[in-house]
Amino acid sequence: MKIRTVIMLTMVLTTGAVAAPPHVVFVVGEGEYRSEWSMPALADLLEREHGFETTVLVDRRLNGGPGNDIEGLEALEDADLAVFYVRFRQLPQEQLDRIAEFVEGGGAVVGFRTSTHAFDYPEDDPRAERWNDFGADVLGAPWKYHYGHDSRTAVTTDRSTDETVLTGVPEDFGVRSWTYHVRDDFPPDDDLNPKSVVVILRTPPPSFHRGYTAQQYLFF
Known about the structure:
Rossmann fold; 2 domains; 6-stranded mixed β-sheet; two-stranded antiparallel sheet; 5 helices
């Protein structure tokens, strides 16, 4: 999975010539899958083997709830890509504003696993309506439940398009996984066309990319 992840990140950032190394900002905060270890390791790999510039921002409180605080989000201002691995965050408004500015400005986003349920504000919090739907609205994948810790995924990729994101990915492969089941009405039909290709075929697909703004593609 590490190789496929690096391929996907590389293809996002190398579709055009750039004068400076691509800048990837990792936004990390969850207390279940040790992303505070895996994301710095991935950042190191991108720098060491691919020449990227990376910034890793880790929440000072890994478990979700009041007190979540990811310092340094101003790094998104010059980021070419933001990689989110977060779960049930309750960030202060000024940090949400940084994320909103990047996403709504057309910044490219990669969302890992728990980022489908990135935020979890109480229902009476005015931020809940917008941010608790981050997975559905931005990534196109609202979390429902996962298939259990003993499951495996047999993957068949969609080769009906010329999307370069599949470069280097085998047509068929199996992985040890406990993938998420999302709501039955996701991904939306608009995401299932050749311009917003489903990368891995399944109902629901465990990985796909979609457009959120005219300037960007999102990968999940």
